[in-house]
């Protein structure tokens, strides 16, 4: 049997050509019986279109929908759906949009998962429907006979594989089939976003390198302004970097970190930025020839520890910070202060000898639960590694 659909005279017409002529179908219709076509369309005699012409070419024509100004309504009684389904008149309708493999009704399967009438194409966004592209994609992924067979083999084998050797192979067969089915047939064009990302990190790398080469020409505030922009790229989980936030200290003095950072879930962390020329380590005989933090470096670490302690422990700080950040964050983000972490950027490590590198690493690990401590050379290395990885991805 063959079927086709077309819009004609304000109606959607189903053309039906049975395999063995129309006499038997007409006899059943004439006695009031319903006839199912491809297990998808349920038709009756009163749905016949231009009855006297139906004998021509051994075909029958049935009215299965109404064509309105913008949409074609598919008769829910004909396709046996609980909801009304509308196709934009811009869509050229074919039988493949109604009937899938083994005469499965596509619209009934859709009807099983929707809770309201469905509009396809046209002004679908305003009407709460789906686009034509989404519907066409749905048709492409509708399971075929081979997929059903593979899935059935997988499910059966999964039940008995503990008892019957060799059955576990069907899991791999099914997974490979699905991967092949859903893989694109040809490589996607180069992602424009990747090009933008590469350009961003390369610009950051070049500017950071230039600044480090003439570090004496920049004050601490300028370093802070420049570096927080670099850190926004390195730590994309943070949606806000903000300065000038003052809160109460445990010692009675107000505290003001260089930056407070807020991640996408509203959790608060602290950022301190010192200049590259800050000395980090010193070697003293009293410490058995080990390198130890200089006062300014250890003071910066202690400063972060105190910020975190005050944020966690001082009453009212959470409310103060929430109020100050209220206009800087989306309404859906609620500030949370729960064991904040810190980031400390200070000094250079480029000229460290082997022992200095080892001792500095020990210091960083000692405070790892509190802060991510890095030098400007660590920062530059991270940026360079990201650029190299992005270039490799880009090919």
Outline the secondary-structure elements.
Elements: E1 2-8, E2 11-17, H1 23-30, E3 35-37, E4 41-43, E5 60-67, E6 71-74, H2 76-79, E7 85-88, H3 106-113, E8 118-120, H4 132-141, H5 145-160, H6 169-182, H7 192-213, H8 220-234, E9 238-242, E10 247-248, E11 254-255, E12 259-263, E13 268-273, E14 281-283, E15 291-293, H9 295-313, H10 317-325, E16 342-345, H11 354-366, E17 371-374, H12 376-394
Parallel strand pairs: 7-8, 13-16, 16-17
Antiparallel strand pairs: 1-2, 2-5, 3-4, 5-6, 6-7, 9-12, 10-11, 12-13, 14-15
Walk me through this protein's architecture.
β5 and β6 form a beta hairpin. This protein is an alpha+beta fold. About 1% of the residues have low confidence. The chain starts with a strand and ends with a helix. The strands form 5 sheets. Strands 1-2-5-6-7-8 form a 6-stranded mixed β-sheet. 40% of the residues lie in helices and 18% in strands. It has 12 helices and 17 strands. The protein folds into 3 domains: 140 residues, no CATH class; 38 residues, no CATH class; 202 residues, Restriction Endonuclease (3-Layer(aba) Sandwich).
């Amino acid at each position: 049997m063959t079927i086709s659909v077309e819009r004609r005279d304000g109606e959607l017409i189903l053309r039906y050509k049975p395999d063995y002529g129309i006499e038997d179908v007409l006899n059943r219709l004439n006695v009031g019986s319903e006839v199912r076509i491809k297990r998808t369309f349920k038709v009756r005699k009163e749905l016949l279109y231009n009855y006297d012409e139906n004998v021509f070419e051994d075909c029958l024509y049935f009215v299965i929908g109404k064509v309105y100004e913008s949409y074609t309504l598919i008769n829910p009684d004909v396709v046996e759906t609980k909801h009304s389904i509308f196709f934009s008149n811009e869509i050229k309708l074919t039988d493949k949009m109604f009937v899938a493999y083994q005469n499965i009704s596509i619209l009934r399967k859709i009807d099983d998962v929707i809770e309201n009438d469905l509009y396809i194409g046209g002004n679908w966004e305003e009407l709460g429907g789906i686009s034509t592209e989404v519907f066409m994609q749905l048709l492409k992924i509708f399971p075929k006979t081979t997929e059903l067979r593979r899935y059935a083999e997988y499910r059966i084998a999964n039940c008995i594989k503990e008892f019957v050797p060799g059955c576990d192979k069907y899991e791999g067969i099914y997974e490979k089939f699905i991967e092949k089915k859903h893989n694109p047939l040809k490589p996607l064009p180069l992602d424009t976003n990747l090009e933008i990302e590469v350009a961003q990190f390369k610009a950051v790398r070049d500017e950071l390198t230039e600044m480090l080469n003439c570090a004496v020409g920049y004050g601490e505030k300028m370093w802070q302004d420049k570096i927080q922009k670099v850190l926004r790229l390195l730590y994309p989980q943070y949606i806000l970097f903000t300065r000038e936030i003052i809160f109460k200290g445990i010692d009675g003095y107000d505290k003001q970190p260089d930056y407070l950072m807020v991640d996408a879930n509203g959790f608060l962390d602290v950022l301190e930025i010192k200049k590259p020329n800050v000395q980090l380590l010193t070697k003293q005989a009293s410490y058995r020839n080990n390198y130890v933090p200089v006062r300014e470096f250890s003071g910066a670490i202690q400063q972060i520890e105190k910020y975190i302690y005050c944020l966690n422990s001082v009453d009212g700080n959470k409310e103060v910070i929430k109020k100050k950040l209220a206009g800087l964050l989306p309404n859906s983000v609620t500030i949370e202060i729960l064991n904040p972490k810190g980031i400390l950027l200070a000094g250079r490590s480029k000229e460290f000898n082997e022992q200095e590198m080892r001792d500095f690493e020990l210091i960083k690990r000692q405070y790892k639960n509190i802060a991510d401590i890095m030098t400007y050379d660590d920062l530059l290395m991270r940026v360079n590694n990201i650029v190299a990885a992005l270039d490799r991805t880009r090919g």
